[in-house]
Amino acid sequence: MNAAKKRKKKKTEGDPINEIKEKKVSTSVVHEYPMSDYVYCHTQDDIIWDSENQLDIANELNRRAESDVFQMLVAGVGKGKTALAVATLGEYQKQLGKQLVFIVTSTAASVAGGGWQETIAWYNINHPDNQLIPYGIESIDRFANVLSNTREKNRLWRLLKKEHGIIVMDECHKYKTPTSKRAKTLQKLKGIRKLGLTATPMTNDEVLDTASYLILDEKYTSKTNFINENNIGMFKDYFGKIDVYKRNEKGQRVVDTDLWKTYPQVQKQMAHVIYKPNIDMSTADMPEVVKILLQLEPSKTLQSNLQSLKEAFESRSFDLRADFDNAVVETIYTDEQRIKKAVDLATAEGVHQPLLFYTYNSVRDALAKEFANRGVDVMFQSGSNHLTTEEKLQDKPVLAQYVAAGESIEFKLSNTSIFYENQWSYLAFIQAGGRNTRRGMKHKVTHYCLVSDTDIDRYRFETLSNKIDVNEEIMENIISQTLDL
């Protein structure tokens, strides 16, 4: 065997998805994994299996699958979507009367953290006569790479089609752009049941979000087909974006139905896709969350620095308006008074493992410096640094990058979150809020939002609040639709 083949064999050994590539797997055989791969060192299972509410939701999802190939389970962060999905798989396997073939895709952090493996293990422990055996649990992007290979895509399609298999799409808002590689590769698995899970389904804009989800449900064949069928191509702007929106009386951006005339029909189509059940959390230990908005008076230093930036902008020292805006925001968020206030909150008596969410690296460094000045060790969760399971159990402040720490990560010791920077992204904010508000966390949790009394910071906070309100209204409109088209 030459050196290249040796390297390839070493790289793919023990890798579920690559084993599909390396072996000529019969489409009638399910790849089995030893139970030891799915058992983790937890003292107890905090999921109440087979409750009436859980089985009702699982059976409703399976019923919907009889007419639609894609269903999306929408529930808030920490509401047990993983357990509900596993219960749905278990009930479907009972209906099939044979071993269910299923693949789970999730974020790389979630796959590495073992949350899906753990939940499947606990289901199997509680259901010895109905064991679930995943064909694969893989990151979203890596699975997209596998499906990019036509031979492997066809092999998986034949297997899933023959065995009536399912692809479970955790964090399915990651497929929100219909022309992305993630979405386009998954769209090729036509006729295969797909079950999506998310707390934030509407995250991009309604044209792209609904197009992506309805293409997965095979109501449309492509983004272009969606645009043409809904006659909204005429509203495409210079950059190719479909602008069918207006501002309502609250200043919120909403769909203008005078432009997008088929919008009510599209919402009815979405009602077939989105399922937002009432989840009974009465038997679950969910933390009490107190939300506090802290408005900070700008210091004299901050006022002086902002005035200097304004003068520099007026003298055309900035090439782009965006550069000026970023400089203003970074100046506000690295202001010494704001830094000290955040660290005061994080080091207060009774605070455990505070999570401080940031975007700018300069903010991270300023916060880390202030903690160091006070002799406090901190941990970092970012795109380039992932905390181990052991580190996540240490009672230290965590400087958490919004995107990298905002999904599929749990901080079970944490009782405080400080949203240090105000986000444009509704998704990032909602997901970040769920890192210490999960099932099984019994302690009281406090969430702080810091807002400087400056025009731009207030505007960012108010814009985010409006996005949350609008998205909640969109969801209410969709789930209120009847399911007859």
Summary of the model, kept short:
With 485 residues, the protein is α/β, with parallel strands linked by helices.
Write the layout of secondary structure elements.
Elements: H1 3-12, H2 16-22, H3 52-64, E1 70-74, H4 81-96, E2 102-106, H5 108-113, H6 115-126, E3 136-139, H7 140-148, H8 150-162, E4 166-170, H9 181-187, E5 193-198, H10 206-216, H11 223-229, E6 245-247, E7 253-255, H12 263-273, E8 274-275, E9 289-296, H13 300-314, H14 321-333, H15 336-346, E10 355-358, H16 361-373, E11 379-381, E12 398-401, H17 402-405, E13 416-419, H18 426-433, E14 445-452, H19 455-479
Parallel strand pairs: 1-5, 1-8, 2-3, 2-4, 4-5, 9-14, 10-12, 10-13, 11-12, 13-14
Antiparallel strand pairs: 6-7
Helix pairs in contact: 3-4, 4-6, 7-9, 13-14, 15-16
Structure report:
The protein is an alpha/beta fold. It has 2 domains: 15-280, Rossmann fold (3-Layer(aba) Sandwich); 289-453, P-loop containing nucleotide triphosphate hydrolases (Rossmann fold), CATH 3.40.50.300. 44% of the residues lie in helices and 13% in strands. The protein contains 19 helices and 14 strands. The protein has helices spanning 3-12, 16-22, 52-64, 81-96, 108-113, 115-126, 140-148, 150-162, 181-187, 206-216, 223-229, 263-273, 300-314, 321-333, 336-346, 361-373, 402-405, 426-433, 455-479, and strands at residues 70-74, 102-106, 136-139, 166-170, 193-198, 245-247, 253-255, 274-275, 289-296, 355-358, 379-381, 398-401, 416-419, 445-452. Strand 6 (245-247) and strand 7 form a beta hairpin. Helix 3 (52-64) crosses helix 4 (81-96), helix 13 (300-314) runs antiparallel to helix 14 (321-333) and helix 15 (336-346) packs across helix 16. The protein starts with a helix and ends in a 6-residue tail after the last helix.
